[in-house]
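To illustrate the input format used throughout this study, we show a single complete record. The first block contains the structure-token representation of the backbone; no residue identities are included at this stage. The design step must infer an amino acid for every position from geometry alone.
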């Protein structure tokens, strides 16, 4: 009689059950780690956008805004220097960040924009502006003070 090679159906089913159990145990940790990583990335993108708004204000001697439109953030500079869409009175500096699409996060800010004067200082801020970024049960925040400094 010839020797058989390979696995039996029972051995294969046991292997599938063991791997499935291990995946069920590991999935919540992996999902939580991914959410935290996305939050950190979104926070870094917002910090960079605030730094971009501040540096654009000092470099161009114009007032700039870090404007929030839902989960999107955009840096605007006024007065307008380039021809653009009719009815628009500001230049867009850099790209529009869609934080929900890129990282799956929700952005919550007290006001809809943070303004930087040509000296790079935050204006119209009583003390500071806090922006909260959340995903699921995790949240991160950044703060822009009246001097325009950004802290995590």
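Output of the design step:
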């Amino acid at each position: 009689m010839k020797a058989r090679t390979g696995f039996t159906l029972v051995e294969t089913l046991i292997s599938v059950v063991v791997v499935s159990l291990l995946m069920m145990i590991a999935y919540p940790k992996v999902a939580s780690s991914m959410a935290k990583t996305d939050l950190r990335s979104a926070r870094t993108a917002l910090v960079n956008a605030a730094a971009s708004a501040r540096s654009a204000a000092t470099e161009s001697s114009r007032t700039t805004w870090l404007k929030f439109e839902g989960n999107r953030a955009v840096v605007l500079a006024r007065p307008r220097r380039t021809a653009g869409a009719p009815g628009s009175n500001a230049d867009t500096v850099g790209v529009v960040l869609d934080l929900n699409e890129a990282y799956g996060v929700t952005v919550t800010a007290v006001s809809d924009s943070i303004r930087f004067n040509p000296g790079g200082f935050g204006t119209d801020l009583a003390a500071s502006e806090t922006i909260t970024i959340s995903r699921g049960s995790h949240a991160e925040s950044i703060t822009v003070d009246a001097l325009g400094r950004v802290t995590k």
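Structural context for interpreting the output: The longest helix spans residues 9-60. The radius of gyration is 24 Å.
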